[in-house]
Amino acid sequence: MKRKLIIILSSLFIVFMAVLMIYYINKGDASKWQVALGGTFVSALPLLLLFKKKIPFNAYLIVGFFVFIFCSSYLGSIAKFYLHYKWWDTTLHVFKGLYVGFFAIALYKLLIPEQARSKVSRTIVVLFVLSLAISSSALWEIYEYAGDLFYTDTMQRGGNKDTMYDLLAGLAGGLLVAIYASLNKIRI
């Protein structure tokens, strides 16, 4: 089921983004075709999971990945939600923090054998989830800074204030998942 889901979603997104890329190349809109090109490559990344014997991530994480790509690449950048809706950027950073938090739980389950999990303290689980959420937020902000430095000047319109709000939003999403993980450690 997960293999089919990855193949279907990746294929749909690759075709969708490739069509957008061709459309915007023909229109001469460099900013949008470059976003679509990036979306094409990022949409293909989950296909690498097909080389694994057992896919370690659940369907929710797989779908969540594509929801984020659609919301950030297409709606955010191409459809200009980032410009038209001030709350869009912050909402996506919260979503990313939540997503990475749940991704951290999946990694925890993958890396820590089931018999050893009972010996891992709640604090370690919380710190692991928060560390990944905060790290992903920092890396995203570096990506935005590099994007503005080399390609465009629209990724960090709010400057340092935007960066801090984004980092705090990513932390908030990660913190919610860390609290969930702490309260449900027996089940994760």
Note down, in words, how this protein is organized.
- With 188 residues, the protein is mainly α.
- The protein folds into 2 domains: 1-77; 85-188, no CATH class.
- The protein is 79% helix and 0% strand.
- It is built from 8 helices and no strands.
- The radius of gyration is 18 Å and the shape is flat.
- The relative contact order is 0.11.
- The model has no long low-confidence stretch (mean pLDDT 88).
Question: What distance lies between the first and last C-alpha atoms, to the nearest angstrom?
Answer: 22 Å
Structural class: mainly alpha
The H/E string reads: HHHHHHHH
State the shape: flat
- The number of helical elements comes to 8
Determine the strand fraction and express it as a percent band.
under 5%
Overall mean pLDDT score? 88
Helix coverage percent: over 70%
Report the C-alpha radius of gyration, rounded.
18 Å
What's the total number of strands?
0
Give a quick account of the main beta sheet: strands, pairing sense, barrel closure: none
Count of distinct structural domains: 2
* Poorly predicted runs: none
